[in-house]
Amino acid sequence: MKRLAILGSTGSIGQSTLSIVEQFPERYSVATLAAGRNLDEAFAQCVRWRPKVVSMATDELALGLWARLREDHISGIEVVHGSAGTVAVATHSEADFVVSAIVGVAGLEATHAAILAGKPVGLANKECMVAAGEILTAAAREHNVPILPIDSEHNAVHQCLRVGEHREVKAIWLTASGGPFRQTPIEQFAAITPEQALKHPTWVMGRRITIDSATMLNKGLEVIEACRLFDVGPEKVRVTVHPQSTVHSMVEYVDGSILAQISVTDMRLPILYALAFPERPASNLTFDLSKLRHLDFEEPDLKRFPCLRLAFEAAAKGGAHCIALNAADEVAVEAFLERKTSFMGIPRTIEAVLAATPESHPATIAEVLRADEDARETARRLLAR
Ligand code: MG
Description:
By secondary structure, the protein is of the alpha/beta class. Helix content is about 45%, strand content about 15%.
């Protein structure tokens, strides 16, 4: 029995993880939860899963949850809050495996703490790898802790890498759906509204990642994530636009063979893979090959998607530039959703913040968080102009 700590339990990955636990009760159970801001959902999860510890984003929310649990005579659940609470959830002695699915750098400290505590991590939070990948992978090597990617592309790459040696890898091919504006004339980009950008053709996801898919910044973050997870330089990572989102990613080997992973577009599969690795439990997540008509692959248009170009540039510089890329994007996406900047204001803001970021390589999580805050401040200042 694997007992799980789920960071981000009320989000879409967290809920999919719980549905895997529901389907495989003989394999998995819930130890602890970090539930964030959704009080109703946190309460429902406490009733259903009876975690040992549950963490809420703030003191106030923790008090609210505690009161509701008491009202319903539910005891034995410790309610904590804030970043210390998330760390307590991630490092709890009864947790054997940590699912890291808090969006943004908010999950960074707890993910790092889990690795230091020797807990295997299923990583859905790409911002952690982008902002502090060098630190996290070094800690994982030192403590002999596996980091198993839940991001569908990296999960696919992880699967394809199992058949070859690192030195035999010629390129890692990340597939991208191209988002809702793959064929929109470039002149119309300035007028794109949040409503249009929030409609993703193939995946249902959170708001920021949906906008990031529309700008292809998401793919850029995944390029950096791939460099860190699989220990390759950005010159070995390629992006191909594949609108069907059927091939989740590929690995090209030096002999000319390309291995691809194909499956349903359902996050429960990469979650199950990460939880069960190196096993493969039987599931009902089947893919009907007979419904497959054709697969398209095309080169991404960097004029249309400058965010992808900026991400490759940041990947080559590493350190503070990757932190700034992620931080500036998060601030710019928020401004876009609040109609305070345009769709193309997102890459403009990121480019300006990157230009203002001196090259440096933060060595601790505290330094990473400081660089992250600096970049956010710069982005806010630029957007306020
Ligand atoms: Mg992805």
